[in-house]
Amino acid sequence: MSENEKQNRALLLQADFDQELDAAGAVKAERLLAGDARAREDRERLDALRRTLRRHAAREAAPETLRTRLLVQLESSNGQGRIAAGYCRFARPSWRVYAGSIVATIVVTLGLQHLVEELAAPDRFMPYVVTGHMRSQISGQPVDVASSDQHTVKPWLASKLPLAVTVVDLAAEGFPLVGARIDIVGATPVPTLVYKRREHLVSVAELQPRSVNYPEVPALRMMEGYPVVVWKEKHRTYAAISDLPPAELEAFVAAFRRAASKIESVPARN
């Protein structure tokens, strides 16, 4: 799909969501949604965004005093001096008032668009995490160091990266450790642990905690058809991805967090 086709597809879905299409356009959008699973996912994200905005974005009318002050300042900038508030309320707006309204509309629109992008789109690092997982599967080499022993994987990662990586053994939980690799997320090398569940692989990237604002409670997201669970633990931040069903990936994350908490609670030896 070309870039223009992607843009036209996104515009069609947005216009259909806002009920701005004519009959022919509505039929076209209906056919797209019926035959394109990704389009349906995009529509679901728009629905989720609308619910989020309605729940968290308060609707407040601008006070009349604000309009009065704006009119006064606009007229004053033309050297005409301050005018009475009563006159401002009933006087016919000058071209500067119309210009000011246009500018204000543009600013509000751009601000809302930015908010929509922030809420609907994944964070800027998630595409790298997803790409790293996909690349590892396509290449047939999901790890740089292959070992089911955490005492082998952890020293290897420590020799490559200037941080202590949390490595846990989840074989008893049905997720044996396969090994680890180093992915490039943005421009930063990050440690990625790899676990296995039947014939499926789970990649767990430990990201820089200052780079992303992940929730303390694991949150499930979807990208490129893959479920991704993101969360933070004190000074650590994680993103887990797999082609497992979302429920199984969430079960893995729960097991990982339990095992990691036991390691964190063990006092360090002098």
CATH architecture of the largest domain: 2-Layer Sandwich
For this structure, what is the CATH class of the largest domain?
A: Alpha Beta
Number of β-strand runs: 7
**General form:** globular
Unreliable residue stretches? 81-92, 106-121, 266-270
Q: Provide the gyration radius in Å.
A: 26 Å
Tell me about this structure.
This protein has 270 residues and is α+β, with helices and mostly antiparallel strands. The chain folds into 3 domains: 54 residues; 57 residues, no CATH class; 140 residues, MucB/RseB, C-terminal domain (Phosphorylase Kinase, domain 1, 2-Layer Sandwich). It is built from 9 helices and 7 strands; from the N terminus they run H-H-H-H-H-H-H-E-H-E-E-E-E-E-E-H. Helix 2 crosses helix 3. The longest helix is centred in the middle third of the chain and has 26 residues.
Features:
3 domains, alpha+beta
Task: Summarize, please.
It is built from nine helices and seven strands. With 270 residues, the chain is of the alpha+beta class.
Question: Which SSEs are present, and which pair or pack?
Answer:
Blueprint: H1 3-17, H2 23-35, H3 37-56, H4 64-76, H5 85-90, H6 95-120, H7 126-139, E1 145-146, H8 150-160, E2 177-185, E3 188-197, E4 200-207, E5 219-223, E6 226-233, E7 236-242, H9 246-265
Helix pairs in contact: 1-3, 2-3
